[in-house]
Here is the input.
Amino acid sequence: MKLEYTPGQGFNMGSSPAHSRKFSAFFRKWWLSLVIAGFAFLTLYVVFGKEGGIVKLLDMKDENELLHCELVQLQDNKEELEDQIQRLNDKDTTLIEEEARRQGMVKKGEIVYNIRYQDIPDSIKQPDMQSSSRENQ
Here is the structure.
């Protein structure tokens, strides 16, 4: 038997036309199954593929947004620091005084008050519930 292909009629085994139609229908089903399986494989590869596919792309987009926000914050911080450097170079007395006070320095003649906080004992914080209930009776 010889396999022949005729455009418009499909494959022909060289025998009867009925056999040719059966073979052609089988071939179309097989071919359609192959195309669907290939499409499914391609879809899975695109979504989960070797490099992570779409899932990894979405994760990378989220990470990119976070990094962009961090970059904006760092740029703002840099601008503030550059402004502070410029003010120090210009000998801005208020900035120098603020920095000196942060480090614990005081002006000549100023009085420093150190306030120390102590824990208040529990007996003072909460009145005795039994004595207050006795007073109410």
About this structure: The longest strand covers residues 4-6. The chain has a mean pLDDT of 78. The chain has two domains: 1-48, 51-105. The helical segments are 17-48, 53-89, 93-102, 122-125, 129-136.
